[in-house]
Amino acid sequence: xxxxxxxxxxxxxxxxxxxxxxxxxxxxxxxxxxxxxxxxxxxxxxxxxxxxxxxxxxxxxxxxxxxxxxxxxxxxxxxxxxxxxxxxxxxxxxxxxxxxxxxxxxxxxxxxxxxxxxxxxxxxxxxxxxxxxxxxxxxxxxxxxxxxxxxxxxx
Length: 155
Known about the structure:
Strand content: 15-25%
Largest sheet: 6 strands, mixed
Order of helices and strands: HEEEHEHEHEEEH
Number of domains: 1
Shape: globular
């Protein structure tokens, strides 16, 4: 019973009822720049993701390793992790790019990464290797994930 409480307290199971039409294209004139929060965490749309992280063919195109926070606005653990993600974005500025993706707004991206619970953190190293961690974690655990999953092959 205690284990179930811990699992529930560290992640939110998600099932979006929103249907997204992934075949709809956005005219180039309507593409907005990725929205940036105060610490440099950028909110990504599908178009932003394809322009900044991986192209439509799945090729990693970012100049830096990447951390992506897949979250939902209604998810308590996501809300609790957000300030820490912003702190770490400031700490790793210029070394790691931090992004966040709202699973309810960007359903095709969430499906592409097979997101089933939030928060889910995706770590992509400079070679495009992807690792994922689900649920809340301490700042020390998060930093260890960044070091191991974003820079592990460089050490």
